[in-house]
Specification:
Elements: E1 4-8, H1 12-23, E2 30-34, H2 49-52, H3 57-60, H4 65-71, E3 73-77, E4 81-85, E5 90-93, E6 98-106, E7 110-112, E8 123-124, H5 128-135, E9 143-147, H6 151-162, E10 166-170, H7 183-195, E11 199-201, E12 206-209, E13 213-216, E14 221-223, E15 226-229, E16 233-235, H8 238-242, E17 251-252, E18 264-266, E19 271-275, E20 278-280, H9 285-299, E21 311-316, E22 319-325, E23 330-336, E24 340-346, E25 352-360, H10 365-377, H11 383-387
Parallel strand pairs: 1-2, 1-6, 2-3, 6-18, 8-15, 9-10, 9-15, 10-11, 17-19
Antiparallel strand pairs: 4-5, 5-6, 7-16, 12-13, 13-14, 19-20, 21-22, 22-25, 23-24, 24-25
Length: 399
């Protein structure tokens, strides 16, 4: 079998890497291997448009079969990699076939974490097929219990309410999305969901899930027709770990997204890279897009450090949340029109490190874009000007 560049994982990051390799002029054999039967697609629409029935798979796919064929990208679907031999630079597929690579990208993503206490069917949302299974159950009047107050759980709750479901959302912690959001934004999310009719319960623990109810540890029984769990993602690191690559909470990489094996890179949800000196993963559209492109360039020998700012967004009913950069202890807040909020995160020298915007629609988008430019500029800022809603952010770029 001829040698090739191989991408294991045909999701967003893997698909973007394959397309980038061709865009950058790579003409050799290129193989894209995915566990799912589908073409590479983006995941944000799964909890919104796909569940609502307003978006189909083609609407969130990165390309179609015709484009893959035109680009000469071999897409192997439904025949996952079962073994990786880093010494021989080869991998084995589930059907026993061996493929040899000159360079390899692991973009294996992850799967939804499962609830251990379930004694009845529970639905999850990670893949397109899971989204379709959930969509078929969301009917007006359906009593839905959503377990998990992170972004997947919150977006499912919002979509279900929009479809007329009765929704109860359970969160084990003291606030919504507490691991990734500041307290003021968590409070605003809580207020919005309750205004929209979601029965949000914080600091609760599930004891058991029955066919017709969720039993809480405190003895409460919540009758329901459907249970959806959004309790995080389990990164698919097993293939890398079995091959002897360094792993932590993901596949660990250096500044160039290279794993502990020199000719193997990692990207997307499974990639654990250093940000501000700390290993972490970023389960976001922005990260999958940026790392997919970046890993492709480095597979071609560019040796570029990955320095893209983290960021994400989430749509909640008619409100939008956007973030960029990293959170710090020094915070300045600015009121936005329509009861929105913009938070600035500064370092000790008053240089912007991150920002978080919460506003109706996409009203915060322009401010977040300006904040990204302010972070890149490294300008020393006046906290009083940042807090003053009458002071435009754009002139602050000039110092």
């Amino acid at each position: 079998m001829s040698q090739a560049l191989i991408i294991v994982g045909a999701g967003h990051a893997g698909g973007r890497a394959a397309l980038t390799l061709r865009e950058e002029g790579y003409t050799g054999r290129l193989i894209l291997i995915g566990d799912e039967a589908h073409l590479p697609y983006e995941r944000p629409s799964l909890s919104k448009g796909v569940l609502q029935g307003s978006t189909d798979l083609a609407g969130c796919s990165l390309c179609d079969n015709a484009r893959l064929a035109a680009l000469g990208i071999e897409h192997i679907a439904g025949n996952p990699v079962s073994r990786l031999d880093t010494q021989q630079h080869r991998l084995q597929l589930a059907d026993g076939q061996w493929l040899t690579y000159t360079g390899l990208l692991l973009a294996t993503g992850g799967r939804a974490r499962r609830l251990p206490e379930a004694q009845a069917p529970v639905l999850y949302l990670r893949t397109h097929d899971e989204a379709l299974a959930l969509r078929d159950r969301l009917r007006s009047g359906t009593r839905v219990v959503v377990i998990g107050g992170g972004f997947i759980g919150l977006e499912v709750a919002a979509t279900a309410r929009g479809l007329g479901c009765e929704v109860t959302l359970l969160e084990a912690g003291p606030r919504l999305a507490g691991r990734v959001l500041p307290a003021p934004i968590s409070a605003a999310l809580l207020a919005l969901h309750r205004e929209q009719g979601v029965d949000v319960r914080l600091n609760v623990a599930v004891e058991c899930i029955h066919a017709d109810a969720v039993q809480l540890v405190d003895g409460q029984r919540l009758p329901c027709d459907l249970v959806v769990a959004g309790i995080g993602m389990q990164p698919n690191i097993e293939l890398a770990a079995a091959a002897g690559l360094e792993v932590g909470q993901g596949i660990r990489v250096d500044a160039q997204l290279r794993t502990s094996a020199a000719d193997i890179y990692a990207a997307g949800d499974v990639c654990e890279f250093r940000l501000a000196g700390v290993y972490q993963r970023q389960e976001t559209w922005r990260n999958a897009e940026a790392q997919g492109r970046h890993a492709a360039l480095n597979l071609l020998g560019r040796a570029l450090p990955f320095e893209t700012l983290p960021g994400f967004w989430s749509d909640q009913y008619d409100w939008g949340l956007q973030t960029v950069g990293v959170m710090t202890a020094r915070t300045v807040s600015r009121a936005l029109p329509g009861a929105g909020l913009l938070l600035f995160y500064l370092d000790a020298d008053a240089r912007l490190q991150g920002a978080c915007g919460w506003a109706p629609g996409n009203a915060a988008a322009r401010d977040i874009k300006l904040c990204e430019r302010l972070i890149a500029a490294g300008t020393v800022l006046n906290p009083g000007s940042l807090a003053d809603a009458d002071v435009s952010l754009k002139p602050l770029l000039r110092g």
